[in-house]
Automatic annotation (TrEMBL), chain B:
Similarity comment: family membership: Belongs to the CcmB/CycW/HelB family.
Transmembrane stretches, start-end: 12-37, 43-64, 96-117, 123-150, 157-175, 187-213
Lineage: Bacteria, Pseudomonadati, Pseudomonadota, Alphaproteobacteria, Rhodobacterales
Name under which the protein is recorded: Heme exporter protein B
Species of provenance: Pontibaca salina
PANTHER family: CYTOCHROME C BIOGENESIS B-RELATED, HEME EXPORTER PROTEIN B
Amino acid sequence: MGYVAPMTLSASDLAISRGGVRVLENLNLTLAPGQALILRGPNGIGKTTLLRTLSGLQPPLAGTIAGADDRIAYAGHSDGIKPTLTVTENLNFWARVFGTSSIQVALDSFRLADLADRPAGALSAGQKRRLGLSRLLLTGRAIWILDEPTVSLDTSAIAMFADAVRAHLGQGGSAMIATHIDLGLDAEVMELGPFKAVPPPLDDFDGAFA
Amino acid sequence: MNALLARDLKLALRAGGGFGLGLAFFLIVTVLVPLGVGPQSALLGTIAPGILWLGALLACLLSLDRLLALDWEDGTLDLLATAPLPLEAAVSIKALAHWITTGLPLVLAAPVLGILLNLPAPGYFWMVVSLALGTPALSVIGTFGAALTVGLKRGGLLLSLLVLPLYVPTLIFGAEVARRGAAGMDIATPALMLAGITAATIALLPFASAAVLRVNLR
């Protein structure tokens, strides 16, 4: 199963801000179908802000984003799981929101079948994460934007996740992932450090009298 | 949209969902009023419509702070904002779910509590009608307040302060319908005003709620 009309996500001359402070600027990137892009950079550089901007959750300060409309599946730091609903109920909800009929692919890919009738509140942190990531398979969206997806996953679960991403890329999907670990993917790495915004020059009041 | 409604109703009925809390609060308030006022059945009958309306108002307020805050905390709102469902529809559905779990039980319980307050016989029908017309507006206005305060820690008190003044027109015309009904007077004018307020809030406020929610998600 491939994706309908896969599109290239591109951003040009992007500048983004967090809490009113400009964090990244002059950012150009493209994400073609079948491509994975890993974002790297120290804490606070603006990885999360960049991913949220590309997902349309906040507007950019400057620059344009193309090819993002209704094609993005976003997975942030929190999984959006309701603790009182079972694993199946949680997945069914997202499947219905995105108009997908079966949740079987999500249960299989992240080995959740044994946990299907458990309330999500009774899952361990890693199992919750697996549930949150399996939701991506139900969206039917071609561009995955993932923010630290491997937090609290063990080695075998990380392999499961990498397989899911690989399968997604194989179907013509694309993925942008902010992570610090090596997923073993054939992916381009983008270092965000060089795009750090330069603070505006201070009004040099004393300098005028020097 | 059905999925979101079904999920919200299911969550309300599960442990900690808060279904029935508003109703229980309404019950307790109306039981306490006769104890405070004393055994003066004529006086109670006069103030009954106002007390029932005030009780319904406060009961609605009680469950508002969880309306969007829970979805915000666990990241569901971020995911919903990137889902195919427009945010305007999502907040409308959430308001509807709030009305079904809070407003509708109040409408149904009001006649029973009217007995406790010695509501005059002609008043029961119009009491139910006025609440049925007015409580949807309470849920929609409340959703707007919840959207405004969604990112704030301890936003509950601020939410009450923001929302209660917005409830004033609904309270005035709602209580007026119930009072006139109880006194056997013509109710057409306040009932139309009440219905108009409800229709206008349902039509317009979801856009405002979705807009402030988008700002709060940044």
